[in-house]
Every structure is written in C-alpha cells, then in structure tokens.
Write a structure and sequence with these properties.
Elements: E1 3-6, E2 11-14, E3 18-19, H1 22-25, H2 31-43, E4 48-50, H3 59-69, E5 77-82, H4 97-100, H5 103-117, E6 122-127, H6 139-149, E7 153-159, H7 169-174, E8 179-183, H8 195-202, E9 205-209, H9 233-236, H10 239-252, H11 262-271, E10 278-279, H12 286-294, H13 303-310
Parallel strand pairs: 3-4, 4-5, 5-6, 6-7, 7-8, 8-9, 9-10
Antiparallel strand pairs: 1-2
Length: 323
C-alpha cells in the first residue's frame, strides 16, 4: 500500500481508502462479512475509512467504531458526514443553511455519530450535501469551531453534489475547509477543470468517491440488472441511465489491457492524478478488498492509455433520478 498526504491536515493516508455505504443498507449486506472485510483492509494497509450517519441511520458508523477499537495500535483515520436536516439529496440552490445545517443541528449530529461509533472523536466531519451559497452564513463555521475546540473533530470537509464539482470551488478558496469529497472516475473527469486546481492551491485534500460509477465501471452490470425493493440502485439505474451507461462501458472494454480487469483500470486511472489524496471504493467482500487494495502496488498506467481513457469523459448534469 502506498500513502499520500491528506492536504494541510498532513495525515499520511492510504491512497486506497474504504467507502462504507454499501455495508449499511444495500442488498446483501452482512455485518459479519463487513467486519471481516474491514479487518482485512486494515491488515493490508488501509488507513482511511469514510462513512456517514445516513448509511443505515448510524449503523455503518457503529461498524467503523468496532474496527477502530479492534486495532488500538494502528492509526485509522475516521470520516463521517452530517445528514441534511431536510433529508434532501442532493441539495438545491433554494435550500438555506437552516433547511439543511442549522448550528445546533450540526452539533447534535456530530455528537450522535460519535456515540454511534463509540469513539472519542472523528478525524474528519463532512457536510453530506453542500451549497457554496452557505458561505454567506458563517454560523456553520462557529458550530464546527466549537466542536473542534472540544476535541470532537479534527478537520472539516464537504461532500459535493453529484455532477456539480463547480459547487465547492468557493468553499475551497475560502480557506474554511480541509477536504472535499467528489465524484471522480473515467467518466466523471470534470473536477480536474476548476476544483482540483483550487484544492492544489489551497492545500485541500481530495477524496475521490464513486470510482466505479455506482457499479457500471466494474463491467458486471447488464441490461437485466435489478435489485431488491428498497435498494437505492433501483432509483438510480432507471432504464435510460442503465442503457446509456452500459453503452459507454462497452466502448471502454477494448481498452482494458491483457491481464487487467476493468475495476483495476478504473482505480489506476484515478491514482494517476496526484491531486487525489485517497479513493474510497465501496467494498463488502474480502475478495473486493484484496482486488482493490492491490491496485496501489501496481505501476502507474501508461500515459498512452490514460490519454485514450480521457477521451471517454462524460459531462453530465443532475436529473430527478441522480441523487
């Protein structure tokens, strides 16, 4: 496992981290298997773990706390997210700070997350949605400053809405945040336009989420793919989205080098960008952990392949199903 500096926080984090959404409420989640997968990742050198209160109403945070306590001699960096009060993902321009993150609400949910995990603090607390307009209302800053002064959090970040990397550039340049979490993958390359240069300038860490485009870049989805009732993927992979995504995946398949899988190519494409501090693929099974973490041991992708992959950039805009 290779490690990268986490922006101005200065932490040494594994360049492949752990995204913990899927083990909380997705179809097929199993706590025993999840904990085994988490422990394996620690044994293989993973040090960065990202969860959220919304992942099973704190259940994923509970699992993270268990794995941290099971490894007391290792420094594992913990990150969680405050859910918006109005429970609207993504946020919209008309949502005010009071709609989503009033000050006392911020404090309440940070304390709730700490209790769920059974930890003394979280290394990184993030807003699970974000609007740059909220920079005009500094009450959120005061609330987080208080939490930091009490030793309950150590860094602050934002999770940027799907396909809106521009809606976070002002926050980065404000100097008020330490990290941004943003969708970045072979298809979604537009964070490189404005967001990543701002992060580089302000020494803000970048957490790359959705490296497999919610599963399409694993190459395993088909036109017949479906999930149990209540699974979030049923609302995301509406027929139009699934069809267009699979068409683009088919166009990528000829580029996968011999001996390499599509998920490996997807992760290594992201690792080629040095602005990225860590990637957080979702992993629920030990086989996925081994495969994904092994990508850190590989050499950088050839420049010629990276350039060919850049031609598969897909600029998208939010829709009613792209929460």
């Amino acid at each position: 496992m290779k490690y990268r500096r986490f922006g101005r926080a200065g932490w040494k984090v594994s360049e492949i981290g752990y995204g913990m959404w899927g083990m909380a409420s997705w179809t097929g989640s199993d706590d025993e298997e999840s904990l085994a997968s988490l422990q394996l990742s620690v044994d293989l050198g993973c040090t960065f773990f990202d969860t959220a209160w919304a992942y099973g109403d704190g259940h994923s945070e509970t699992l993270l706390g268990q794995i941290v306590r099971a490894n007391p001699v290792r420094k594992l960096y913990t990150a969680t997210k405050i859910p918006p009060k109005n429970r609207k993902w993504p946020s919209r321009r008309e949502h005010s700070l009071d709609d989503c993150y009033p000050p006392e609400y911020i404090k309440k949910y940070v304390l709730s997350s700490i209790k769920n995990a059974g930890l003394e603090s979280f290394d990184l607390i993030q807003f699970h949605t974000w609007e740059d307009l909220w920079l005009e209302d500094q009450r959120w800053v005061t609330a987080l400053d208080w939490l930091r002064s009490q030793g309950l959090i150590h860094a602050v970040g934002i999770s940027i809405n799907r396909w809106e990397p521009w809606n976070g550039v002002k926050a980065v340049r404000s100097g008020l945040i330490d990290a941004v979490q943003v969708i970045f993958n072979i298809f979604d390359q537009n964070p490189e336009d404005e967001l990543f240069p701002a992060c580089r300038e302000m020494d803000v860490a970048v957490i790359a989420r959705v490296p497999f485009d919610e599963g399409t870049l694993t190459g395993r989805l088909t036109p017949e793919s479906s999930w149990q009732e209540g699974d979030w993927r049923n609302t995301y992979f509406v027929p139009a989205n699934l069809k267009s995504s699979l068409e683009r995946v088919e166009a990528l398949k000829p580029l996968v080098p011999p001996g390499m899988s599509m998920p490996e190519m997807a992760l290594r494409f992201i690792l080629n960008n040095q602005d990225v501090s860590t990637i957080i693929p979702g992993m629920r099974k030990p086989t996925h952990v081994r495969q994904n973490l092994a990508c850190s041991d590989a050499e950088p992708l050839p420049a010629s392949l990276v350039e060919r992959l850049r031609q598969h950039r897909w600029d998208r805009t939010p829709t009613e199903w792209s929460q």
